[in-house]
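User: I'm writing a short report section on ligand binding and want a predicted complex to refer to. Could you take this sequence and iron/sulfur cluster and write out the structure as tokens? A short remark afterwards would be nice.
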Amino acid sequence: MSDLEALRKQVNYDQTFDCVQCGYCLPVCPTYETMKRETHSPRGRINLVKMAGEGKIKIADLKEPIEKCLGCMACTTICPTNVQYGRILEGAKEAIEQHEVKSGFQRKTEQFLFDRVFPSSRWMGTLGNAAWLYQKSGMRKLAQVTYLTSASPLNVSRFEKAVPDQPGPLERSLRKHRVRPDYKLRMTVAFFTGCVMDGVFFDTNQNTMELLRLSGAEVVVPRNQTCCGALHSHAGKSSSAEELAIRNMEAFDLEEIDYIVNNAGGCGAKMTEYPHLFERGTYWHEQAKDFSEKVRDISEVLVELDGLEFTEPVELTITYQPSCHMTHVQRVSEPPLLLLNQVRGLKLRPLKRPDFCCGSAGIYNLVNYDESMKILDVKMDDVKEKRPDAVITTNPGCLIQMRVGIERTGLEKKMEAMHLVDLLMEAGPVPK
Ligand code: SF4
Ligand code: SF4
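Assistant: Sure. The structure tokens for the complex follow:
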């Protein structure tokens, strides 16, 4: 196979012809709206990939427009010809990653983060514990007063205030790996904890397990599970994503469970896409199909179980910011709204453009901070108009980004951002 043929296979060149250049995707693309350049629109990017596959431009020329894509997939929902933009995007990222010249230090740092930290529950727990120590010991205040936080790499300091108070090491170590309902057992589910969710939003994960248990589900937490691989795919590291998918498929006993439940839109989307990581007809492709069929968002399972009654009124006006990957990849939209409607006292004011990405997109807000904030500002204009007390969402990245948006607009005393699961726990859930 020639180099050009190999590149065409890698970037899914044949699928670029499915785009008929109609432009229906332009109004839904956040980066086209904020950057106002055809090269930063879905069809523009598809064209560039096609040109790279024909040798008309270099792979390096793809880097900027492809890296500025959020991967929100809003373009795929609107596309009349069902262009598989996600495949094209991931192929292009992989090609860019392979051809990019990086310093030894950069490669080693990336290797450490992607191969050691994200996939390791021990590492993520350690980071959570370090954050707890930082918050509790007074170091946080000291770092803020002395502006030490601003010395952190990748704009991390700008997100510091959005991180919730962390539980201590003891609380983390007491996590149960199997919980059973008090009354009738209605199903058995395995809980996918996620790397960022478990490291940063441990309490939300605990609440997730409790809601499932109260609804009548036995919940198991497989010990050998690892990161879903979404962050690796976003970074063009497809072979690492494959390895993680295999580790997860080995960790979950599909015979024992009805569903694999997650509470992070990005992780759920990645796991429903595991079959795309493997060649059709291979052993792992077949395993991935079985695995992905069992993946569900928590909201879907709670609606299906219909086992909760909410006893405490929650007198809040809220708006709901759906996770893009939950909407456009998992195609789950209704269940969170059905659950919110069950909570007494809540007033829901829908956003004008709920499908417009908040700009979080994995680690997009860390590596493309300025562009991410322009997109967030568009989102916050919509949010401010609704004047909610709280913005509800279903993904850790969106949650952090919405908190940053609230802080940017100076509304932190009037508005908060919450995960759907935490709001449901405040509503006094009891078994029906
Ligand atoms: S909507 Fe689909 S077919 Fe039309 S330009 Fe966009 S990607 Fe191409
Ligand atoms: S994935 Fe999102 S940002 Fe990227 S081209 Fe599609 S709509 Fe635009």
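A remark for your report: Residues 108 and 137 are 31 Å apart (CA to CA). The mean pLDDT is 90.
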